[in-house]
Fold each of these.
Amino acid sequence: MSEILVLGGDGFCGWPTALHLAAHEDNRVTIVDNLSRRRIDDELGAESLTPISTMQTRLEAWEEIAGKERAIGFAEIDIANDYYGILDLINRHGPDAIVHFAEQRSAPYSMKNPETAIYTSDNNEAGTTRVLTAIANSESKPHLVHLGTMGVYGYGHLGKTPIPEGYQEVTVPTDEGPKQSEILYPADPGSIYHMTKVVDQAKFAAYAKFYGLRITDLHQGIVWGTQTDQTKMDQRLINRFDYDGDYGTVLNRFLMQAAIKHPLTVYGTGGQTRAFINIQDTVRCIELAIKNPPEEGDRVAIHNQVTETYRVSELAELISGLTGVAIEYLPNPRAEAAENDLVVRHEHLEGFGLEPTTLADGLLEEVIQVARKYAHRADKSVIPPSSYWNGEVPAAKQLGDKVAGAV
Amino acid sequence: MSEILVLGGDGFCGWPTALHLAAHEDNRVTIVDNLSRRRIDDELGAESLTPISTMQTRLEAWEEIAGKERAIGFAEIDIANDYYGILDLINRHGPDAIVHFAEQRSAPYSMKNPETAIYTSDNNEAGTTRVLTAIANSESKPHLVHLGTMGVYGYGHLGKTPIPEGYQEVTVPTDEGPKQSEILYPADPGSIYHMTKVVDQAKFAAYAKFYGLRITDLHQGIVWGTQTDQTKMDQRLINRFDYDGDYGTVLNRFLMQAAIKHPLTVYGTGGQTRAFINIQDTVRCIELAIKNPPEEGDRVAIHNQVTETYRVSELAELISGLTGVAIEYLPNPRAEAAENDLVVRHEHLEGFGLEPTTLADGLLEEVIQVARKYAHRADKSVIPPSSYWNGEVPAAKQLGDKVAGAV
């Protein structure tokens, strides 16, 4: 029997992970969430394409389907503000593992304005601080499994070398000649949001060293897909599908545009290469990470939670091929390299048993079962980007308006 | 004319820096402080050996001595909680530079208990977040000069190689053969406090990259000495001298012990090598850093604010030699290597014109003018360590009690 807390269990990755873990008879799952993701939807005037239920309805539906034994607990705690709340929960449940998704996870939102930037920093940093402090001061000292991001690595600032799983071999000149060292891969985040995950890394390394905590950091690529085996079981269990300019990923934007027969808008040349993973694989990765903790005294275990890489233009071509919708190239609202290669190592989780779902295999179902099915709920005005960080706000804004107008 | 804000200008380094900068006719100085250091004194039941005045008395005394033209302004703002307060101040003053000392700076305090750990993280991280966000959103985009610490480097985890000024040359294996890169020196902090300075580094790199901010990070060694040219001018301008187990440095502990004729307590073998700088040099370094900003678009400028290194045992011998007081060796309350070499590069600030004050030259004055002069104010019970992070609290605590009892 494993007792597991899922922090941020109301979110896009958190909810299906909580269900996936709860589906296994060995686990007892409790979700901890302050429901902030729903508040931000309200703030942005956006909502999930898929009609998500309230937390209470979700939990009731799950208990109805899975039975009382498999029921998921819920604690509405703001982990960024309530140290004793989280400490008390840990001491009462004595969890074996804590899965930590409870962070503001949109890069564009974090770059929107001073308030969203400060909120993102404060929330993500103070949350991780309290979780780590609570674990260090708890009786059960649970294994922490954190959802990080591939975005901490940047895109190849060390040269043409595969991005390793967290730690980079380097040679350092010393008085005794060149010496090999394995160091935390030098970070190069692209937004305030990504920066907070770099900050998390610094904290994990420190707490693992000071208090012997067992910590796994999963550097995840862009997640695609919506449903998992559990979220499909009942309409009330359906997962989020975000398509707005802040929370929607490039793939979801394409899917939405295809569903409403709008040209797929590729920013720049589409030569940006990104790493991807399917949501069904995400939930399996979390399970595998929980089952394979580092030992006390080990450094932080870092796994790249990624199964394949694609150029944005290739992705557009894939969806264009499946749907017959054309591609339109537009100036890029982000300050980033126009083109990049991205070679990422991802052997750890596959070594634990992950069998990847590929975009080529899974995309068609996503087009038909989600994007087309719920296209009538789409608010076309929220699809264009609304955060700009290339220093050309007016031009990009105009462009955003043009895109919105064109939809 | 330079307009300068000194955040944390009521503290041990901040106050003499504010005076030093204000003494120059080209500068206009405003202190920003929430007076938290005085609150922590109350919390710990400790106080400065030297009788420091209230902020109001300090400012009045300075204006009396230096004249209305040189008067220092004061804004009581908690930068960790008041973004608009700091933004408004920047926009009203249009400073050329902001000196950022406004952080909880005791490593033992940060390791004391969950509350002091969380306070240290929250305060230091949220303060830096707001200062950076305010600068990025200000009109004048002032140069930020931050007081970092040598403690971000750790002690030689990359092997026997001098610690560089912020950036380390490494060779990375790539598909095109070995490639040279200069990376931020891989951090290895020794406490939550030091970890917050690692977090600061991550934020500085990000904000310099995202918003082109001009940032200088000064990695300071252990500061010794109390008075500067300005703090000596009037009894009401006197600087702090901390000798309690949390805020007192090893050198101040020795000075106090010598003054009250108690054996100098060396933890462990005293083989720990540490980097030092005199307070008079600190204030000059800040001035030199302000005068030598990086360009917009440059990476963060990092200077090691250090002038010499000593083993703790050598330091004890130096003071024992000056005062005739014996040395006593005790178990170490910190989790750290018993012995270490420390070779630190410190060429940047000397290149800007710093002429170092050495311990061998300045210590005697410190013994006579400060430690002996104010020894009658000493509270002997606060000298032993009260934070332990070697996992042997009971033994170390017993030891602390023994030390306290022996005084």
Amino acid sequence: MYEKFMKRAIEIAKKGLGRVNPNPPVGAIIVKNGKIISEGFHPYFGGPHAERVAIERAKKKEMDLAGATLIVTLEPCDHHGKTPPCTDLIIESGIKEVVVGMRDPNPVSGKGIEKLKKHGIKVIEGVLENEVKKLCEFFITSVTKKRPFIAIKYASTLDGKIADANGKSKWITHRLRPRVHKLRNFYSAVLVGAGTVLKDNPRLTCRTKNGRNPIRVVLDRKGILSEKNFKVFEKNARVIVFTQNERAKYPEHVEKVITDCSVETILKTLHEKGVDSLLVEGGSDVFSEFLKYADVIYAFYSTKIFGKGLDVFSNVQFSVEEPPRFEIARVKTSDTEIFMELRPCSQE
Amino acid sequence: MYEKFMKRAIEIAKKGLGRVNPNPPVGAIIVKNGKIISEGFHPYFGGPHAERVAIERAKKKEMDLAGATLIVTLEPCDHHGKTPPCTDLIIESGIKEVVVGMRDPNPVSGKGIEKLKKHGIKVIEGVLENEVKKLCEFFITSVTKKRPFIAIKYASTLDGKIADANGKSKWITHRLRPRVHKLRNFYSAVLVGAGTVLKDNPRLTCRTKNGRNPIRVVLDRKGILSEKNFKVFEKNARVIVFTQNERAKYPEHVEKVITDCSVETILKTLHEKGVDSLLVEGGSDVFSEFLKYADVIYAFYSTKIFGKGLDVFSNVQFSVEEPPRFEIARVKTSDTEIFMELRPCSQE
């Protein structure tokens, strides 16, 4: 009976996608006598929580919340962070029932359900839990795996080439480009290798209406981009460069991280910097390195054939018996292009 | 107003697919007072024409065809071949109107429309012409280009590999296999290179219910399959081997063709042998050679990744500016596999 309200809560929660990171997007609905009387979502990092928005909006209109039900995607916090605990606010409000999509996997902010129950509030858990987990996948991965959620995004020909035999690659897919910018609007950071910067000089910005630019992460092990100008170094977004070369020089605003540049170190460092989600955009060697961490692959195919050329994953090798396997979560096709969202198959 | 009848004519014509070659599949409907009173299709090569089946079926039931309309996918023949001309039969029957999907591109059997008009029968042309042309594409290619209609069928990983780095390839796609057998049921012949025979020892038969086996064509330039046993040489279907090696020996029932083994010669020879359609099934070198003649590509993808491995088209090279381009005519996806029918883009 709460599914339709939870669906609405998920819907409004999505308005915070790409804005609340590394917090999860959260939506909250207040229902009384079977009708929605108020709603709210977590709008941006550091902003008020969804429950608070919904309750305060109701109070402003002098609504009586006694006996009302709160439907919220994530377990309300019981924690003094950037904002006071939502549990106290709920208890004071007179709300008598709270419906929760999923428990908070973060031990710091968790324990809200326990507190509510102690104060005599009925709590129903697990409504549309899978949908809510999907909504919060960046947050869940970040909290439980201590690394960002990893997406690989490639654009290839039908025969799996991301560049022709001469290394040329621009505009393999056209029509699906808006989808790429949409992804950049949701992911906290975008990563490319130095080779891609040298060859394509991409901006890696988000060119959608009201879009926001992701953090740009460049893997420049040897420092070949040192003392040169590239579009990724422009000041319109935060830039982090990983390098092994202590002498490499980048523009002043660029955060230079000198490390062994292993994928593990990169992911740990980005996690510590608050990056909950990383869109890996190339090239072939970088795709090969990050493949084993991929939580999702966004594969864009154009219906062209190159024959000889640069492979998507040129630097890994799997046998026919044990290749990485994926499931198709989404497919979109036009006359001449295909987009697939692929998720790793659960281990058998 | 005739579209729905033509649609039905196309539908029943399809029952002859894979049986009538190198004739086209043809369907015919007789309509009187807005109702279908008889129908027929060309059932097998050398069998009665669709118009004849429909008219004779009506006569058997002592129906009066005076003033009736005949809807037929292809222009009726005016030619004494394996059967007498359909035009005479139509004229005698009393039918007053003939609706034709497309003109017969074959100058030998054509001229039927002219004859009908001379005898006062009203002829309407071009109803669902594109659909009928699609239905007859093997026949049209055969008659106009003097070569078989060419299909390339490959099964690859997401990254365009048809075998792993050790050359292993079996069972890249599973669930879509029935679709492969369905193709073998329609195509007159199937072609593979000697390397594929050596490595996979395929049967290349059609394992669908009531299926018929295609002619098996093997390209064995150097004669490496000489004096060995392979499943493609079994007697359950006609076998043609192209070789440059005069001394190569194959089982007695195998038709050995000694030529330069160029694609052009192979296609010309197969055309002369009555092959109107050829399904090219591998391997990589053979795909590369036949690519420029491909009238359609049937691409089967599994959602696996091999990394290093054997490319679908390992022996051709196209630049990003001028690659072969295709349009998606059909897509089917399951959780873990994708099938696409791709048609060459018309030259711009």
